[in-house]
Amino acid sequence: MASPKTIALDAMGGDHGPEVVVPGAALSLERQPALSFIFYGDQPRIEAAIARHPALRAKARIVHTDHVIAMHEKPSQALRRGKGSSMWLPLEAVKTGEADAAVSAGNTGALMAIAKLVLRPIAGIERPAIAAIWPTIKSECIVLDVGANIGATAGQLADFSLMGAAMARAVFHIERPSVGLLNVGTEEMKGNEDVKAAHALLKSIDALPLEYKGFVEGDQIGRGTVDVIVVEGFAGNIALKTAEGTAKQISSYLRAAMTSSVLSKIGAFLAQGGFRVLKEKMDPRRVNGGTFLGLNGIAVKSHGGTDAFGFASAVDLAYEMADSGLIARLTADIDVFHHRLSGAAGGSQPQSATGSPLGKA
Amino acid sequence: MASPKTIALDAMGGDHGPEVVVPGAALSLERQPALSFIFYGDQPRIEAAIARHPALRAKARIVHTDHVIAMHEKPSQALRRGKGSSMWLPLEAVKTGEADAAVSAGNTGALMAIAKLVLRPIAGIERPAIAAIWPTIKSECIVLDVGANIGATAGQLADFSLMGAAMARAVFHIERPSVGLLNVGTEEMKGNEDVKAAHALLKSIDALPLEYKGFVEGDQIGRGTVDVIVVEGFAGNIALKTAEGTAKQISSYLRAAMTSSVLSKIGAFLAQGGFRVLKEKMDPRRVNGGTFLGLNGIAVKSHGGTDAFGFASAVDLAYEMADSGLIARLTADIDVFHHRLSGAAGGSQPQSATGSPLGKA
Questions:
Q1: Which of A11, B23, B216, B329 is 20 to 30 A (C-alpha) from A244?
Q2: B231 to chain A: which residues are within 8 Å by CB?
Q3: Do residues A106 and A145 both lie within one domain?
Q4: How far is B249 from chain A (nearest CA, A)?
Q5: Which residues of chain A have pLDDT under 70?
Q6: Average pLDDT value for residue range B271-279
Q7: Same domain, yes or no: A234 and A90
Q8: Does the structure show a pLDDT above 50 at B354?
Q9: Residue among B246, B252, B303 with most chain A CBs within 10 A, to mutate
Q10: How far are the Cα atoms of A121, A209, A338, B150 from residue A359, in angstroms, in the given order?
């Protein structure tokens, strides 16, 4: 692989702008010399930051714009007045083929709305989703939707399965990723109507490009039971943030426990190599980057408050996805899946699917 | 306080039956000498277990029944054939006033269904909820609904707020508990229609017996931002289990990290006092017990796999709730709230509430 790829970067996004985006890109370039970059934003600030990175300088182009979308702008506002901004232009570059992927650490809602408008959903996909890479005891899994939309029909949940599987193929290099539907129990009778109908749908179609494993519960996410976990965006977002909160809470318990006595302090000092291992395992920067899946192009959202190391993870992710041919494969998979579905609907539609399994006919 | 209270126990519930239920009750009695117990189940097994606890023997009565509800029985089955079982009889005892609260470590769905049928919801409450005590960095909070039902209307979410506040008053001894609605963002425009309408509803009513704090996100649960967190049961159950899974995941990282080198092992040995502090903080047995809120009586569900220490926590919780006069207070609060609501609906109904705010008119 290692084919040359161009990443379009919103240099002004996030809490720090070019001072994080530029060194982040430099770090990613060290790992992946086939990369080149287009930076969009305030030229003098980008120039100043890039001057310290001669290797990056040689592989980068800067497109100046004064126009920046603020962190708290509403998606609807951003759509109306975002054209020409440092967030909009990278997505345009992906659309025209000038770049292979876009990365921004800016306003998530605005980025999602603009990406959807500029890149457009893949034919047959009603709703794009935001996918997160979630660390597990075994390695990592993909969870989607973590907040692009609230609620999802059975058909949309089934589409999410294919979208997540395509991403798992791209970033974990697993040909037939295992997929589970997040639910409040693993028995067939559990869950809401959409989840039950999605389950029936995924069981009813043969030869999916994934291994459907049925329902999984919240405690199975971190156990690494499956490669891809599908859930509608309200519960998915709450799960993601609850896990982040729990991790912080336990870190704080651990700090307090390790300073609770002189002996514990000495022990913690001696065990600092072990604590370093733990810290690395739990470092949220390692898996920084929510991906908008289901669009005709790759757009990755980096965490707004991250540093260069974290931003580089988001760029790495964008590169891997661009390099894997994910979009073409997903477009074909969705097409085949929807054809099978309409075939199945004509023949033996799953009984518990209420209405059209795709929720759009 | 410390008024005499009788707790009715399903001696056969959970993975271990009387061998855990009996010593659990004995432990709780040590802490709270005003307690007495009625055990329901296999008399010889209960007698054998109780023989080792003379203090408990003096405060306990045994009601024999052969009839036990299995862990995997469906709620509908349990309702049809559960009468006279070791799970049903304690709830009957609460209903007749023979006991002040019931505790079971049995099948959750069956217990919920039977409790609802036997004890009946408080007038005005459409749906009972399961409340969990959730450890936070500061102390503890209450989260409901963690899985009694899927989905909730705005009016039901508002009722959950009062139910959670009543429980916080009983177990945390806070007169005006703070309450937050779990959502995917803290801005007013975020969330689904039910959550937005519940928010408008809670803001619109003056003089609630709680302090309504607006939306909270998943990462704020463990931070202890509010005393009570309200969410419908699908997302609430997923949040609870995701947090449990994350805690286990980090424990496993920690174990691996502390055995990653000889120095780490020595350090961990020296710091074992600190690790004990951490283990106690994270011990799920300390806050064992989901409570069914919104019924005319107190029913607590202990974790099925817990030991005597964990079962005792569930008994403690049942005692505290019985001792606090929770049901009478909640019944009055709900009545006042619903009257205010119908007053407000006649006058200035909140604009963003779609349809009837109580979703039942």
A1: A11
A2: 238
A3: no
A4: 6
A5: 1-2, 282, 284-287, 344-361
A6: 76
A7: no
A8: no
A9: B246
A10: 17, 22, 12, 20
Domain with residue A174: its CATH number is: 3.40.718.10
Residues of B in contact with A253 (CB under 8 A): 137, 278, 281-282
Residues A69 and A150 in one domain: no
Res. B220 pLDDT band, cuts 50 70 90: very high
A-B contacts (CB, under 8 Å): 209
CB B357 within 8 A of CB B346: no
Q: Does some domain include residue B295? A: no
**Beta pairing class for A211-216 and A178-182:** parallel
Tell me whether residues B246 and A242 touch, CB distance under 8 A. Answer: yes
Count of domains observed in chain B: 1
Helix, coil or strand: residue A104: strand
The boundaries of the domain holding residue A228 are: 123-290+326-361
Residue A320: inside a domain: no
Q: Are residues A86 and A141 in the same domain?
A: no
Contacts of B238 in chain A (CB under 8 A): 182, 184, 217-218, 231, 235, 238-239
User: Do A65 and A81 belong to one domain?
Assistant: yes
Return the structure tokens found at B185: 């963002």
Window from A155-159, A299-303, B187-191, B221-225 with minimum mean pLDDT: B187-191
> How many C-alpha atoms does B264 have within 13 Å on its Cβ side?
15
Cβ atoms A118, A88 nearer than 8 A: yes
Are residues A84 and A162 both part of a single domain? no
Strand partners, B129: B293
Asked if A300 and B296 count as a contact pair (C-beta separation under 8 A), the reply is: no
Shared-domain flag, residues A163 and A76: no
Residue A127 sits in the same domain as residue A180: yes
Q: Residue A25 corresponds to which tokens in the numbers above?
A: 């890109």
Distance from CA of B44 to the nearest CA of A (A): 35
Residue A207, domain member (yes or no): yes
Q: Which two tokens stand for residue A124?
A: 């047959």
The answer to whether residue B208 sits within a structural domain is: yes
- Do the Cβ atoms of A270 and B264 come within 8 Å? yes
pLDDT digits (tens, 9 = 90+) for A119-150: 999 999 999 999 999 989 888 999 999 988 89
Nearest-by-Cβ selection for A147 from B184, B263, B269: B184
Q: Which two structure tokens, joined as six digits, stand for B305? A: 């796999």
Contact yes or no for B237 and A184 at CB 8 A: yes
